[in-house]
């Protein structure tokens, strides 16, 4: 796969950043954004076409993973017991 043009890499970077911003949790969102920036910055001077293809493949896999994680809704919270002084223990939804 020799589609390593600059515009392709920038497009993939933008898609990763856009999808990472969709995480509802602040911690996951900031971590994903930081990892995307760091990964691209760390490898910006790679010239070997084979290495570049491998890195772009990993970036595409990461994009698919982020899309799956963003799409899945969080699991519902379990019912928690609470104590009412008059009636005893009840379950809160």
From TrEMBL:
Which segments constitute the Complex 1 LYR protein domain? 8-64
The organism sits in which domain of life?
Eukaryota
Q: Name one GO biological process term.
A: iron-sulfur cluster assembly
Pfam families reported in the protein's UniProt record = Complex1_LYR
Cellular component GO terms, alphabetically? L-cysteine desulfurase complex; mitochondrion
What family does the Swiss-Prot or TrEMBL record give for this protein? Answer: Belongs to the complex I LYR family.
PANTHER family attached here?
LYR MOTIF-CONTAINING PROTEIN 4, PROTEIN C6ORF149
Q: What is this protein called?
A: Complex 1 LYR protein domain-containing protein
């Amino acid at each position: 796969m020799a589609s390593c043009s600059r515009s392709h890499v920038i497009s993939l970077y933008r898609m990763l950043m856009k999808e990472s911003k969709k995480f509802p949790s602040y911690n996951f969102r900031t971590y994903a954004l930081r990892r995307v920036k760091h990964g691209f910055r760390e490898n910006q001077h790679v010239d070997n076409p084979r290495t570049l293809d491998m890195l772009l493949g990993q970036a595409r896999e990461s994009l698919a993973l982020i899309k799956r994680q963003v799409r899945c809704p969080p699991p519902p919270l379990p019912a928690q017991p609470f104590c009412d002084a008059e009636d005893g223990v009840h379950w809160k939804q």
